[in-house]
TrEMBL record:
Phylogenetic classification of the source organism: Bacteria, Bacillati, Bacillota, Clostridia, Eubacteriales
DHHA1 domain ranges (all copies): 234-322
The protein's name: Phosphoesterase
Organism encoding this protein: Desulforamulus profundi
Cited SUPFAM superfamilies: DHH phosphoesterases
InterPro entries the UniProt entry points to: DDH_dom, DHH_sf, DHHA1_dom, Oligoribo/pAp-PDE_c-di-AMP_PDE
Amino acid sequence: MNNLMAVAEVIKKAQRPLLCGHVMPDGDSLGSVLALGLGLQRLGKEVTLVSSDPVPDLYHFLPGVETVIVGEVPEGDYDLLVAVDFSVPDRLGSALHAFVKNGLPVAVIDHHVNDHPFGHYNYVRTEAAATGEIIMDLLDLLQIDLNLDLAINLYTAIVTDTGSFRYENTTSETHAKTARLLECGVPVSRLSNYIFGEQPLVLLRLLEAALGTLEVSDCGQIAWMSISREMVQSAGASGQHIEGLINYPRKIKGVELAIVFRELDEQRVKVSFRSKYQVDVNLLAKKFGGGGHVRASGCTVEGPLEQARELVLKEVKEFFREGSDGRHP
Ligand code: 5GP
Ligand code: MN
Ligand code: MN
């Protein structure tokens, strides 16, 4: 594994870097890409920011977000791809695959558990609560000073991946780094409203439908919801409104493991896992070809929805029963 200094050197040498976060972008991948992108522009580089999937409306306040090119990669003489907040090629998105296949050098900066990141240069720090924390260290190495635009992006990266500093991944370093961002003038209360406080009505309509599918296991420790395409459509919602819904089964007192099944199309169902104290959901997602973190992970399994739910729940219950090796309640 290369160290951060080595990745910083590679980035320093690049003149026309292509920066991307993962498919279905979240606050950490967008905030990290934008902070690094805005920073590298200040070094005089010709930076191109791309996202395979659209930027959720929620993140339209991020400084620089209007420069993110969605869905395709413009023709260009790029000399480096910087992959941010993921380290497996299947989270690249189809437009970027071709560049990697054609031999564009790749630098990976990530905090997900992965022993085999796909870059030529890799920096993976699983102790970082958000990739945004690593980007702050990288900016320091590149001698790029923080400013308010960078700080808003980095704060968003950190506050979203830590669930407002409430998740287990939050450390003293997370707070120390956040303090530096607040010194740049980040408007905390305003951002909290944008990110957590306000929700479009369609999201509440979708929540209403999703709660109608809520089920809890006999043991009271596993809770799940299922979201069909029909439900999303009738609520007038879209994929971007689904991300936070898993917090509802997770909130139930006594529940250790929360799951959301989301129908992507006839063949594919996206499964999200969250645990509170004991279950290693990264291991669980890995059983289905996915991954993530110990307390938050995901995977995509074969549909239709009911079949996916049965398959996953059967495996989950076995995983729970296996019991006493410290991974389970
Ligand atoms: P979410 O449930 O919010 O989509 O994802 C939770 C966490 O698991 C995120 O950190 C995300 O990066 C990771 N994750 C979600 N889906 C996948 C997947 O299909 N493969 C891998 N490797 N990680 C995933
Ligand atoms: Mn992410
Ligand atoms: Mn992240």
